[in-house]
Amino acid sequence: MKILQINSVCGIRSTGRICTDLAEVLEQNGHECKIAYGRESVPEKYQKYAIRIGSDFDVKMHALQSRLFDNSGFCSKRATEKFIEWVKEYNPDIIHLHNIHGYYINIEVLFNYLEEADKPVVWTLHDCWTFTGHCAHYSYVQCDKWKVGCNNCQQRKSYPSSFLFDHSRKNWLKKKALFTRVKNMTLVTPSKWLAGEVRQSFLNMYPVTVVPNGIDLNVFKPTPSNFRKKNNLEGKKIVLGVASAWNPLKGLNDFVALSKILDENYKIVLVGVTAKQKKKLPKDILAIERTNNVKELAEIYTAADVFLNPTYQDTYPTVNIEAQACGTPVVTYRTGGSVESVPKQNVVEQGLLSEIKSLLTTTLCQKENFDNDKFELLKKYIDIYGA
Questions:
Q1: Are the C-beta atoms of 132 and 99 separated by less than 8 Å?
Q2: Chunked mean pLDDT (size 10), the chain, 387 residues
Q3: Which domains does the chain have, with CATH numbers?
Q4: I need a labelling partner for 272 at 20 to 30 A (CA). Which of 192, 231, 253, 256 fits?
């Protein structure tokens, strides 16, 4: 069986790694897989799977038009037409969509082909962009216009940013018309929460399957190191936060506020900050820039006493299960799918720092064991494909 995956990136970041992990699983089970991607570079080991859609120039032009006209997903027409010609020659048995936002593909051209080709389509939704008129997440602003038709978007200047126009209503109507024309499509979400949102959207005619994000349990496991000694943290209770990009929606401001109410027995450690953020953070927070060394990350998870994820919008954060796989309990806000991998007693209402402090100073939270082996979870896609 030949499977074509389509995603904004290949082999990097969370969605790109899901694509390449799935390609490896498919290959091990006797199937062929290609990954069409739109931007950034591909690690050398995954080049054999990769097919580029367009160029860096196409991405920049798509992003520019989106910022001016609020038409993300409706540019890159020529690049997409050229890609579709390649798809016709490759002739896959299954087309598996992931993130089709990211300034690289024209969704009208793509879905016109999908309707015409009438091939089985699997679409893994990693966020909410598919059924909104603009944004990828709406939880923080508590918006539910997407249920009946977006308009007057209060997140117009958030990704995918538009500085001049608000075409959220037009985008919502066009997406609805395009995405509901595919006859044979199965939707996949990483969390029960997102599945529930999809069932309230215009995509509710399609079956939805939940396949949680997984991790490599050969990497994320209790991993002793000299992290505490190296950073003069012996005798401290480490409260850890990890993110690929820190901002207020990930809880950066909450960590700063928490550092002011915890006593000297605690030390907040944040991984993934930029050099600019590092300079601005309080001196009592240990700020570590992003690491691509997963073994080093497992060592930091293991050294921590508790992992705190004060996210304000998330579908199913893998950092929660990475930390617990390393033996570290997790506390999170009651946000989207973040609660699905955390014990109920470790879930805190958004912004309640006093409750977080209480959890830290009493039982240091409860541990939960989650066996989210990514390779076992990805095998579920073979069943979904009907292979």
A1: no
A2: 97 92 95 97 96 98 97 98 98 98 98 97 98 96 96 94 95 98 97 98 98 91 96 96 94 96 95 95 94 90 96 94 93 96 93 91 60 84 89
A3: 2-214+375-385 (3.40.50.2000), 227-361 (3.40.50.2000)
A4: 192
